[in-house]
Amino acid sequence: MDDEHRTDNHIILHKGRPCEFPIAEICEQLARKEIAQFVREYFACATISHELLDKIVSFCENSSQQQLFGDILYAISFRIKKCHFRKSHRNALKYIIEQLELRHAEIGWQLYSCLTDSMMDNATHADRIYFDESFLKYIIVQENRYQLSQGTTGLSCWQASCDLANYLLKHGRRYINGSNILELGAGCGLLGIALAAFDCAKSITLSDGNDDVLNLIRDNIRSNFSKNCDIIFNVIFLEWETINVENIRIVPDVIFAADVVYDTLAIKPLVHAIRKLLTAFTKEIKTGPSCVLANTVRNQETMDKFIACIDENGLSVKNCFTYENSIFKFASGNIEDQSLFPFTSSVQCPTLFHELILKD
């Protein structure tokens, strides 16, 4: 492929122009809070509350407003094309249509067309679509429908990666603007793709220890970027147990990892890898790279073991905060924040953020 440069163990993709979303004529409607929230949650495959669905139904009782709403969904679906839908899409549209029929409202062709499209799904894959704050750009991330597939959890999106992307784009720009970024356990590549598409990073190195995951990352990068860009993507094989710093071609200014603390057996290799990376790159960058982790707290005992392992291995926590129920809880106070990357999990748990540094 003429837009890629291959080396023995990784691929550098010289791509990066984000897929633009040229529908300024409907952006005025997307400024409505309930419409914007529905669009974000619908295309992100998040579960939409009945409260929000009922607001949409009330909005669509007016035929002209329903046409605008239908135009938005149809225009986005048409421009994205080949989107692999989920059951959540069908359920949301079926509910809206059924409620409108009960209220004897005439249903426009756009809603029926979107419902028909949502029935043409893929047996193994689905797509999550995320928009920037102004709805002028989007990214599309393909994932496996099953959270555990082919012996790994890395082929699906997870809550903490969505929450980390949202935090960095809204509140953590100091970490990413013009930075060289390294992500450990990058999974589908959502975080790196979002940071590149929304014009933040200088270079992005996405790593994982599973070849199937790396192939999915490459596919997702190709789906979102054209040939000409200023950002360099590095997709590399990196195992925490046998981490080789020399495989990382570009010295990172910041290291990220999301949803990597879930298995107690993986904690020690992860912490050792972080310490090795921070130690090695501190020699090349006077201040040393930052390291920010986001993890969903499903089991407090597992998280406690992670914190203990950090302390035992020459690392300390510089900063810690949480995100739960659309609220960031910082030491300086709380900030209500509707995520750009909505995610629904079967069990709602907080996401805990840590910034790690080497001990003096």
Descriptors:
360 residues, alpha/beta, Rossmann fold, 2 domains, 12 helices, 14 strands, three-stranded antiparallel beta sheet, disordered N terminus
Structural features, described:
The chain is an alpha/beta fold and 360 residues long. It has two domains: 31-120; 144-358, 3-Layer(aba) Sandwich (Rossmann fold), CATH 3.40.50.150. The chain has helices spanning 27-30, 33-43, 50-60, 63-80, 87-102, 109-118, 159-170, 173-176, 190-197, 211-224, 264-282, 300-312; strands spanning 4-6, 10-13, 19-20, 125-131, 137-144, 180-184, 203-208, 232-237, 254-258, 290-296, 315-324, 327-330, 333-336, 351-358. The strands form two sheets. Strands 1-2-8-7-6-9-10-14-11-12-13 form an eleven-stranded mixed beta sheet, with helices on both faces. Helix 5 runs antiparallel to helix 6. The longest helix has 19 residues, at 264-282. The model is unreliable at 1-22 (pLDDT under 50). It holds the Pfam family Methyltransf_16. This is FAM86 domain-containing protein.
